[in-house]
Amino acid sequence: MPVPCPPSPERSAEVRAWFAEEARSERPDLVTLCLLVGAVGDGALDDAGIDSAQVELDRLAGQLPFRPGGPSAWANALHQLLGVRFEFRGTPGDYQRLGSSLLHDVLRRRRGLPILLSVVWMEVARRAGAPVYGVALPGHFVVGFGPAEEQVLADPFDGGRVLSGGDAELLVAGATGASLEPSMLVPAAPLEVVSRILNNIRAWAAARPERSDVALWAVELALLLPSHSARLRYERAQLLVERGDFLTGAAELEAYAEVVAAVDEPAADRVRGQAQSARARLN
C-alpha cells in the first residue's frame, strides 16, 4: 500500500507552525489539528483540501435529523447516517495503512482506525448539536453521547453500533485484560485525542523501520503539543541518528542526558555514551 509523499520543506514548516499555534490556543480545534497532521504526512493535502474536508463534515452533519431526541436517539441517528448509509467503518486491514490515521484520507475512503472514525462521528454530531465526546477506552476509542448518568456509547469502528455496558467491558478486557472503570468513560480532551493519534502513527512507523521519516514527523508534532513526555526528545534523537544526522542526534542525546541526570545519573551516562557513539560514526 503506497504511503503518501511528504510536503515540501516550506509547506511542512508552514503547517507545523499552524499546528503549534492551534495546539496552544485557548480552545484547540480537533478537526483542524487532525487535518494538519494529515498535511504534514501527505503533501497532496493543500489548504483547499483542508477546506474541502471541513465542508464534507458540514455536509454530513446537514443530513442528520433535527434534534432526534436524547443520547440514544443521537447515537442511533449517527449509526444510520454514517455507519449504514455512508458505510463508514473499520476493518483489520486498516491497521496496516498510514492513511487510516489521516482524517482527510478517512473521509475519502470511509475507512480508518477507531480513533479517526470517532473523530468523524464526533465532528458530524457536534455540528448538528449533539451532546457528543470521545471516550478513550484502553486499546479502543469510542464515542459517548449525553451526561454520565445517561451515557450512551457507540463504536464507529463497527459502524457506530450502540454498545451495552457488557460490550464496553469486553472491549477493555480484550485490549488490556483489565476491568472497565468509571474513570475510563470520561470525555477525552482534543489534545489527548491528537496525542493518541500521533502515538498510533509512531507505532505504525515503528513496525516499518524503512519509514523512519514518518516516525520522525510524528514525534516532532507530538513535541509541539503543550504537554508531552520528555522521552520524546530521546526518541527524536535516536531517529535522527538512525537517519544519518549524527551530529544533531548526538547533540539532542546530550541535551536529554542533562534532563535525565537530575533523577538517574547512570541512565544519563548511558545516553551520553550513545551520543559519543553517534559522533564517532562521523569519522
Explain what you see:
There is one protein chain. With 283 residues, the protein is α+β, with helices and mostly antiparallel strands. It folds into 2 domains: 9-190, no CATH class; 229-280, no CATH class. The protein contains 12 helices and 5 strands. Strands 4-3-2-1-5 form a 5-stranded antiparallel sheet, with helices on both faces. A hairpin with a 5-residue loop joins strand 3 (152-155) and strand 4. The longest helix has 17 residues, at 190-206. Residues 56-199 form the Protein SirB1 N-terminal domain. This is Tetratricopeptide repeat protein. InterPro entries: SirB1_N (IPR032698).
Low-confidence stretches: none
State the separation between the terminal residues, measured CA to CA. Answer: 38 Å
Beta content comes to 5-15%
Major beta sheet summary = 5 strands, antiparallel
So what's the overall shape? globular
Number of domains: 2
- Gyration radius (Cα, Å) is 20 Å
Strand order of the largest sheet: 4-3-2-1-5
Total strands: the figure is: 5
Give the rounded overall mean pLDDT: 94
InterPro entries: SirB1_N
Domain Protein SirB1 N-terminal: 56-199
Family: Belongs to the UPF0162 family.
Protein name: Tetratricopeptide repeat protein
